[in-house]
């Protein structure tokens, strides 16, 4: 009975702890209360097992105890599951659900690890041999792989971390490659993109970015720097793997790097204060490296700012979509000094609807996901419709490969990372498709537009491609050659635009805002004039502005309508600033007019580097009449003084609004309030003065008449001048002595 009890105890312990230190399936229970431990894988070699490759697998990395408790008995091993036997099994392996206990080699002991401590590891295991001592690979295929970390925390042994990935096997080391079957042609898009960050620019003005993240990304150690470096290192010009790659580049990203290299500013407060950017040198070096990598390579231009073409067309902006795509191709070719494919379009998510096909049709070759057509094929070339230029064709991208390029290695039970295994899933999927031999004749890999891969992922994918090409499983095919393959002699296939794609596209109201902004810019263009040797041309000024409006329609904001609206508001604010740079200058003091026909001298400023034709418009104000003002040509970044013939009909101080319009009537900068002080007598004043003078004359005449009438009195009835009538008393006797020679008394003086 004691032996039975002991056996039961051993079985219970085994069920609770799983296989920790002994060979066998690694099924230790997950302990949710275990403190976090970071398992990081830095490298894995080889990424693809080939006949000419090494006979053992080597994985390096480190383990860090980020918890509060000591971890004892740390041990690590790499184990594998059976080869996947179909696409569902491969997808299950990518999700981390595939079994991984077919081969369980021994653990490598790493010892105890105190809180905050870290220990490096290098684990090597033979690729072939006994299941208990090697990975025991039986032959070509794609195998689920687990990097398994076990340990004991608080006396409880368990799996405390793990990273799942895939191991593609083309052929076993030391054996000749399998000669059966022809190599599968393969081509892969290599996206070099980033979210749009530059505010719509004007030549000659300091570029402004909404943040300075590109300074970090383009510097050594950054994502964009790593993409170009991995390309130059792992796929040098002339190599087969370079032939299989086609660079998918956003023209706006390259234009932003060129602008940054000359000095730029970053907004500190949205729409307000700015500060100098710190990535001018890094941007210049990155751009030079990209030019070197693109020389002689296949280059595909994305729409500027990676705009959502379907959303633009569905909102009635097909012409804008076509024009900006062509402008982007020309700008990218000029910046990189290399040819750009001019007949290929890669829409967002690889799906297309009928109106967009109609808008871009006419000999165009589209790069579409196989999920976006109804043909049932997963790869190859299909015919969309017949027409001029050979009609429209689509090169199909395998959805399985796109998923594999998207997903990182599955990380279990830890907060660590698997940077050294990035891109391994795509290598496994490529080996799986190459082994199938039923791919429709070719493979096209299209990673997601917002590809987050850095140097590690890119280098891993390039290395896997090179190994499979060298081993004869894949054959490098340039994208133009892949697209030129003859499509089957069947009816044109139909398009399938998924409902989820329609729900994720940029909202129609945002596209309407973009269209209004473009119309505003075109109104400015209509007032511009190209003058030889003076300033820039209208195309140099306004084409970048139009492309800049697509920032709000970028596919980076798909499924995030709030962000798209914020970006549209940023662009709208910038366009208003540009319009306001053509304005009437506010004078420092009021205009003083001393005569009724004195002219007004108005100063017009042009902040754009192109000659602008404008009309000065003064608001109608009582007391001021203005003669028609001819159109004025304002030089680039200059000023002109306009002499306005005006007639003032009143005195005093009053305001007049002066604004600018294009010859077509579009408004430019905001109206400026002019203050006018007049000392001229107006018509009303003259009339009042005249009436007052007339009244004064009338009153004076009236006073004289009244006095005349009052002094004349009644007529003399006696006729002798005495005024005495009958019965009147006689005159007084005269005073001969006293009054002789004296003047007559006042009463006797004659009236005046």
UniProtKB/TrEMBL annotation:
Keyword Signal set for record: yes
Residue ranges of the region described as Disordered: 710-752
Biased composition regions of type Pro residues, renumbered to the chain: 743-752
Transmembrane residue ranges: 680-701
Pfam families per the UniProt record, alphabetical: DUF6049
Highest taxon of the lineage: Bacteria
Segments of skewed composition (Low complexity): 710-719
Native source species: Pseudonocardia autotrophica (Amycolata autotrophica)
Entry-linked InterPro entries: DUF6049
Signal sequence annotation: 1-28
Name of the protein in question: Glycoprotein
Keywords associated with the record: Membrane, Signal, Transmembrane, Transmembrane helix
């Amino acid at each position: 009975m004691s032996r039975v009890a002991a056996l039961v105890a051993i079985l219970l312990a085994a069920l609770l702890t799983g296989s920790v230190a002994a060979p066998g399936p690694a099924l230790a229970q997950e302990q949710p209360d275990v403190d976090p431990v970071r398992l990081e894988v830095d490298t894995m070699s080889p990424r693809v097992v080939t006949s000419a490759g090494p006979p053992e697998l080597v994985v390096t990395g480190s383990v860090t105890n980020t918890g509060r408790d000591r971890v004892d008995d740390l041990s690590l091993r790499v184990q594998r599951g059976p080869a996947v036997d179909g696409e569902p099994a491969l997808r299950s392996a990518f999700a981390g659900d595939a079994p991984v206990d077919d081969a369980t080699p021994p653990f490598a002991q790493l010892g105890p690890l105190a809180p905050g401590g870290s220990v490096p590891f290098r684990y090597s295991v033979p690729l072939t041999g006994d299941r208990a001592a090697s990975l025991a690979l039986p032959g070509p295929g794609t195998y689920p792989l687990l990097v398994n970390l076990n340990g004991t925390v608080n006396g409880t042994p368990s799996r405390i971390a793990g990273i799942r990935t895939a191991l593609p096997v083309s052929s076993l080391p030391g054996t000749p490659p399998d000669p059966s079957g022809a190599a599968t042609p393969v081509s892969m898009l290599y996206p070099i993109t980033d979210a749009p960050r530059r505010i719509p620019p004007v030549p000659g003005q300091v570029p402004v970015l909404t943040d300075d993240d590109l300074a970090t990304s383009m510097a050594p150690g950054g994502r964009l720097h790593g993409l170009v470096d991995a390309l130059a290192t792992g796929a040098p010009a002339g190599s087969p793997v370079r032939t299989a790659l086609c660079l998918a580049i956003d023209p706006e990203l390259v234009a932003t790097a060129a602008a940054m290299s000359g000095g730029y500013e970053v907004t500190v407060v949205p729409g307000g204060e700015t500060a100098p950017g710190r990535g001018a040198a890094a941007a210049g070096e990155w751009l030079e490296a990209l030019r070197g990598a693109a020389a002689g390579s296949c280059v595909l231009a994305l729409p500027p700012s990676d705009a959502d073409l379907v959303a633009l067309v569905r909102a009635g902006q097909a012409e804008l979509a076509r024009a900006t795509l062509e402008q982007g191709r020309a700008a990218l070719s000029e910046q990189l000094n290399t040819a750009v494919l001019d007949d290929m379009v890669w829409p967002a998510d690889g799906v297309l609807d009928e109106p967009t096909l109609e808008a871009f049709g006419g000999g165009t070759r589209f790069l579409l996901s196989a999920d976006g057509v109804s043909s049932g094929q997963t790869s190859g070339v299909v015919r969309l419709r017949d027409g001029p230029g050979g009609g429209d064709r689509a090169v199909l991208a395998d959805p399985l490969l796109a998923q594999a390029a998207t997903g990182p290695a599955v990380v279990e039970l830890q907060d660590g990372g698997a940077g050294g295994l990035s891109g391994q899933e795509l290598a496994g999927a490529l080996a799986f498709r190459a082994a199938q031999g039923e791919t429709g004749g070719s493979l096209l890999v299209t990673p997601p537009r917002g590809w987050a891969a850095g140097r590690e992922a890119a280098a891993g994918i390039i290395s896997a491609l090179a190994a499979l090409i060298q081993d004869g499983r894949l054959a490098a095919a340039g994208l133009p050659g892949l697209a030129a393959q003859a499509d089957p002699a069947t009816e044109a296939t139909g398009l399938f635009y998924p409902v989820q794609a329609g729900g994720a596209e940029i909202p129609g109201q945002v596209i309407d805002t973009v269209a209004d902004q473009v119309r505003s810019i075109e109104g400015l263009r209509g007032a511009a004039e190209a003058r030889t040797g003076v300033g820039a041309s209208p195309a140099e000024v306004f084409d970048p502005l139009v492309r800049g409006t697509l920032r709000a329609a970028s596919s980076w904001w798909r499924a995030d309508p709030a962000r798209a609206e914020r970006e549209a508001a940023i662009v709208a604010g910038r366009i208003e600033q540009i319009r306001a740079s053509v304005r009437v200058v506010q004078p420092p003091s009021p205009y003083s007019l001393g005569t009724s026909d004195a002219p007004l001298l108005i100063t017009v400023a042009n902040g754009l580097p192109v000659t602008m034709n404008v009309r000065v418009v003064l608001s109608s104000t009582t007391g001021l009449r203005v003669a028609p003002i001819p159109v004025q040509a304002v030089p680039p970044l200059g000023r002109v003084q306009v002499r306005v013939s005006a007639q003032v009909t009143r005195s005093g101080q009053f305001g007049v609004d002066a604004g600018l319009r294009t010859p077509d009537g579009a408004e430019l900068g905001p109206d400026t309030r002019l203050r006018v002080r007049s000392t001229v007598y107006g018509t009303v004043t003259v009339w009042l003065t005249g009436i007052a003078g007339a009244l004064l004359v009338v009153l004076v005449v009236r006073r004289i008449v009244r006095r005349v009438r009052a002094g004349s009195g009644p007529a003399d009835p006696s006729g002798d001048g005495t005024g005495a009538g009958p019965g009147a008393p006689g005159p007084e006797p005269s005073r001969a002595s006293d009054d002789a020679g004296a003047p007559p008394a006042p009463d006797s003086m004659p009236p005046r």
